[in-house]
Amino acid sequence: MPEPQTPPPHVVVLFGATGDLAKRKLFPALYRLASCDWLPEAYAVIGSGRHSPGTDDEFRTQVREGLDEFAFDDEEPDTDALDALIERVSFQTASADDGADLGAAVEKAEKELAEQAGCDVGDVRRLVYLSVPPSAMKDMIAMLDREGLTDRARLVVEKPFGLDLASAEELDAALLDVVDEDQVFRIDHFLGKEAVQNILALRFANGLFEPAWNRHSIASVQIDVPEKLTVEGRGSFYESTGCLRDMISTHLCQLMGFVAMEDPGAFEAKAVRDTKSALFADVRPLDPARVVLGQYDGYRDEEDVDDDSDVETFVAAEVFIDNDRWEGVPFLLRTGKALAEGRRTITLRFRDPESDMFDEPACGNELVLELTDDPEITVDLRAKRPGPSFDITMGTMDLKISERSPEAFPLEAYERLLLDVLRDDQTLFTRSDEVERLWEVCQPVLDDRPEVHAYEKGSWGPDAALELVPGGWRLGG
Ligand code: BG6
User: Is 356 buried (19+), middle (13-18) or exposed (0-12) by CB count in 10 A?
Assistant: First the structure.
């Protein structure tokens, strides 16, 4: 197992600590890092939120139950790591109006950690995870500043970052008023996925692909993230965001960034973010006429959803990148809830070669990246059908990466990203210029919303989205 450098002592403050993200992802990630000995030797986790879950012990029981449900899969828990983590957990209520008790709790924890680690209090770092809605973010930041909690802090800000360009700019101004950009970790958990980072390895480590990665060889790119799950339990979040903000301006555009960016030259924060940002500057703002919005039947019956809600749960969009590499190549982005399958699939469709040997290609020539926890790369190739005639058939080259590296140690996205914050590495976090540009790209659709088409649960979304892709979507047809 690789040995990342042990991070310095930390107080981790989790806003939204009784929420779904903390239960499903953040505490399980902390447990896994604890079980690998990748957490700091001295650390404390202070859960926070407006409503108290009871005493510290009651909160600890709640965290333990959440871990039982989401952290161990079929494995036996590492009880030493689990107990050590739980012992360091406490809860302190706080709100945007009143953070005094939280400030005091952080100070107290810091003194104890400094004693334990034999260091100055000033050497204890703060990781403040803001899992709060965009509308609440600015006031929370002001509170952190008032309580002196931004010093030595790394602020992790959950997506979506603002709700449009103007609110993202306001949020950035509020943040940069109290901290420096190198203290801000805007999280988009797709970037923590092994398979997404693998896009860069595939492109820039292979002489087979890199020279073909452009408009001369590639006819179109599909970035397809259908989800089977509905918005059940997240009605109020969805009503205030919708699918465009939840998935397109964030996850899918970031995937497009990894697929389309130039060679950053190094896997390090400045290089990767400068290069991705340069790419986003060339992305043409969306044309509402080439965007299809949908809402699944039954969405309006979900809890906390308006009876006549017009919020989209599905988006398909055609995007162009106006640079030399990609001029004229459509990037087709699609995602939605309550669809037929749950997949994260990137398909690069190659152009047909200019040869007169074959009348008409019998099948596609595509490179397909399945961005699962167990990443898989497939290439659909044409080959000669064995026999006396010269016919073409299709063959598939398939690479299941984990089968090739059984000793590898993949990290789940939040595990990787929390570790990166502790290590102070911003490579896989988005920068303000990227985020603001992506709002500019999406703004025409926010300003001039296309009609929202109804679609059946378990389908592939509205028919209009099928028509967006001349050769058809790879998934679902
Ligand atoms: C979240 C979105 O950021 O990502 C959800 O808010 C979505 O709506 C989820 O379902 C998908 O993430 P993953 O890792 O399960 O593919």
Answer: exposed
User: Cβ(246) to ligand 1 under 6 A?
Assistant: yes
Residue nearest to atom 6 of ligand 1 (CA): 246
From the CB of 194, is ligand 1 less than 6 Å away? no
pTM: 0.94
Q: Please write the tens of the pLDDT for every residue from 265-320.
A: 999 999 999 999 999 999 999 999 999 999 999 999 999 999 999 999 999 999 99
In the three-class reduction of DSSP (H, G, I as helix; E, B as strand; rest coil), residue 434 is classed as helix
Query: Reduced to 3 DSSP states, what percent helix, strand and coil does the chain have, rounded to the nearest 5?
Result: 40, 20, 40
Pocket test for ligand 1, best of 190, 228, 411 (most atoms within 8 A of CB): 190
| Other C-beta atoms lying within 10 Å of the C-beta of residue 141 | 24
Q: 67-102 pLDDT, tens per residue? A: 999 999 888 999 999 999 999 999 999 999 999 999
Best residue for ligand 1 mutational test, from 26, 159, 189, 234 (most atoms within 8 Å of Cβ) = 189
> Taking a C-beta distance cutoff of 8 angstroms, is the pair 313, 243 a contact?
yes
